[in-house]
């Protein structure tokens, strides 16, 4: 539910690229559903162009977000599929277990990303340390040679 | 409300949100709290309802935030400064709009991401039209206890996911700082080595001219 003139934008950013999944303009009320296709952080932005917003209802926006198995309306499902009470309870448990599975998949994906990041960081640290040591040695050599030629020119050595 | 980390950064005018007033609701929201900002949420609660507010800071600075919960009369029910994580349960003493605010006003330049879970009342029954006069069968009570156990599994998973996000945020912070430090150090190294050589050379050049002057 949104007050007059509110735009709803849904950019999604797992990683770097930001892709707008959904962008809608609503009047005094709005409702939308979507299914996420990639794991990661999704952002929901509410934006209002209306100047009347601050005067309307003290600037409050009623908002309701439901995710995952809470989107299911069990009495409706029971009526549609004609389930007995026990079957409905079993259905609810199945939905919950599915939710748990999805979450575990997400954690497995996260762990994989983390492992890749760690390995690439490890590589970069190794190359950087080697490069820094080489720069240090080369600088030392340059310093000595430069000074030696300088002193020889000044006939001090 | 189950966990995909959906978050709502509010770019503009809206500072106040109201969650839809209803019995037996649970809302989880992860939102962004800019520096020196305060964000308030409102909920209409009926008298005698048991409510739980739980919050955790996910990214930003020292991972702490101020939290404050007020009843419709303005009496402060809960107030904590600079907390990383906390959970507070209360029973609504009267009808009205309860308000809770998160404040980042003590911070000058760090944005914070805060997760909160506000639970109003118990879960809605599966069969709202029924009037439970008969006792549950064994199968049904087994289902109920499995349901409760799974709910706590999902809750633990949410906390684990938040911990992982927090750890990742700290690691990325550290990574940026180490990268800048390494580049800075390399530049300082080069500047110092070149500077040393030229400074040394300048000592010997000056001395020679001074000696000549003194001589004549």
Automatic annotation (TrEMBL), chain A:
Membrane topology reported for the UniProt record: Single-pass type I membrane protein
Statement: the UniProt record of this protein carries the keyword Endoplasmic reticulum: yes
Cell location: Endoplasmic reticulum membrane; Membrane
Keyword Nuclease: no
GO cellular component: endoplasmic reticulum membrane
Transmembrane regions listed in the UniProt entry: 125-144
Annotated keywords: Endoplasmic reticulum, Membrane, Signal, Transmembrane, Transmembrane helix
SMART domains: EMP24_GP25L
Chief location category: endoplasmic reticulum
Pfam families in the record: EMP24_GP25L (PF01105)
Domain GOLD as annotated: residue spans: 1-67
Stored PANTHER family: TRANSMEMBRANE EMP24 DOMAIN-CONTAINING PROTEIN
Family under the similarity heading: Belongs to the EMP24/GP25L family.
Name this polypeptide is given: GOLD domain-containing protein
Organism: Ficedula albicollis
From TrEMBL, chain B:
Keyword Transmembrane carried by entry: yes
Biological process per Gene Ontology, one example term: protein transport
Keyword Transport listed: yes
Localisation per UniProt entry: Cytoplasmic vesicle, COPI-coated vesicle membrane; Cytoplasmic vesicle, COPII-coated vesicle membrane; Endoplasmic reticulum membrane; Endoplasmic reticulum-Golgi intermediate compartment membrane
Family from the record: Belongs to the EMP24/GP25L family.
PANTHER family: TRANSMEMBRANE EMP24 DOMAIN-CONTAINING PROTEIN
Name used for this protein in its record: Transmembrane emp24 domain-containing protein 7
């Amino acid at each position: 539910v949104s007050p007059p003139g509110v735009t709803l934008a849904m950019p999604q950013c797992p990683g770097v690229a930001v892709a707008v999944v959904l962008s809608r303009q609503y009047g005094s009320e709005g409702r939308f559903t979507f299914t996420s296709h990639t794991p990661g952080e999704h952002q929901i932005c509410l934006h209002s162009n209306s100047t009347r917003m601050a005067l309307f209802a003290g600037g409050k926006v009623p908002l309701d977000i439901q995710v995952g198995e809470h989107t299911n309306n069990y009495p409706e499902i029971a009526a549609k599929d004609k389930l007995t009470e026990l079957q409905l309870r079993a259905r609810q448990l199945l939905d919950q277990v599915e939710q748990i599975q999805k979450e575990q998949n997400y954690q497995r994906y996260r762990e994989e990303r983390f492992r890749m990041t760690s390995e690439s960081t490890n590589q970069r640290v190794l190359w950087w340390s080697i490069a820094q040591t080489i720069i240090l040695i080369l600088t030392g050599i340059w310093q000595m040679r430069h000074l030696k030629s300088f002193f020889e020119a000044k006939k001090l050595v | 409300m189950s966990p995909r980390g959906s978050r709502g950064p509010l770019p503009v005018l809206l500072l106040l949100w109201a969650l839809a007033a209803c019995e037996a609701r649970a809302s989880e929201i992860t939102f962004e709290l800019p520096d020196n900002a305060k964000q308030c949420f409102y909920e209409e609660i009926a008298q005698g309802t048991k409510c739980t507010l739980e919050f955790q800071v996910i990214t930003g600075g020292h991972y702490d935030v101020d939290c404050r919960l007020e009843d419709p009369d303005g009496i402060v029910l809960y107030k904590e400064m600079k907390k990383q994580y906390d959970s507070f349960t209360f029973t609504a003493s009267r009808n009205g709009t309860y308000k809770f605010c998160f404040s980042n006003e003590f911070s000058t330049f760090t944005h914070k991401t805060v997760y909160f879970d506000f639970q109003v009342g118990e879960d809605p029954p599966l069969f709202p039209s029924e009037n439970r006069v008969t006792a549950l069968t064994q199968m049904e009570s087994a289902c109920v206890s499995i349901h409760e156990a799974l709910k706590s599994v999902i809750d633990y998973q949410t906390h684990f996911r938040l911990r992982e996000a927090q750890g990742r945020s700290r690691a990325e912070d550290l990574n940026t700082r180490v990268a800048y430090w390494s580049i800075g150090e390399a530049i300082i190294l080069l500047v110092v080595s070149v500077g040393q050589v030229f400074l040394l050379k300048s000592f010997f050049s000056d001395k020679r001219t001074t000696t000549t002057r003194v001589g004549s």
